[in-house]
Amino acid sequence: MPLMPTAHDISADDSAEVAIPRLLERYGGRLFALGSRLCHSRTDAEDLVQETFLQAWRRWDSFEGRSDPGTWLYTIATRACQRMQRRRAGEPERMASVEQLSPFLDAHLADLGDEDGLSRQVRSEAIEHLEQTIASLPMEFRMPLVLKDVVGFAVNDVAAILDIKPATVKTRLHRARMRLRKTLHEVLPQHPENAPPPTYERQVCLDLLAAKQEALDHGVPFDSSIICERCQNVFAELELGRDLCSDLAGDRLPEDVRSRVLDRLQSGRPA
Question: Is the pTM value of this prediction over 0.85?
Answer without folding.
Answer: yes
